[in-house]
Amino acid sequence: MYPDVRVAESDADREAALAVRRDVFVEEQGVSEEVEMDGKDDEAVHFVATDGDDPVGAARLREVEPGVGKVERVAVVADRRDGGIGRELMCTLETTAAERGIDRLVMHAQTHVEEFYRRLGYETTSDVFEEAGIDHVEMEKDL
Fold it and tell me: Is 25 left (phi over 0), alpha (psi -120 to 50) or beta?
């Protein structure tokens, strides 16, 4: 069964997305809970990937200025990586962004997944910088 990727509209879907983020960013990568839960979730559109009842992926999108969306908190649980879930999350996020009038996406991508985003059409627009103790680069894509 292939995971179901969708906008997290229900409380249960939002909680599932947050559970993936805690698993990946807080538990696996050591990002503090305070940094991960940054108070911006209420202004974001959330996405969740589930396999049956199991949450396996998450992402969020915020419109940071008119027509510009910021891709944030893209995560896939460790044992499900390299199976296309991240690509499906990004496809759903990009489609949703376009439907909401967003024509450019920006992000701070961890350097170890920079190539993944390049394959999806994103361009690196900065040198490496540290965020939450992890190397990142700024990337963007016109929709």
Answer: alpha
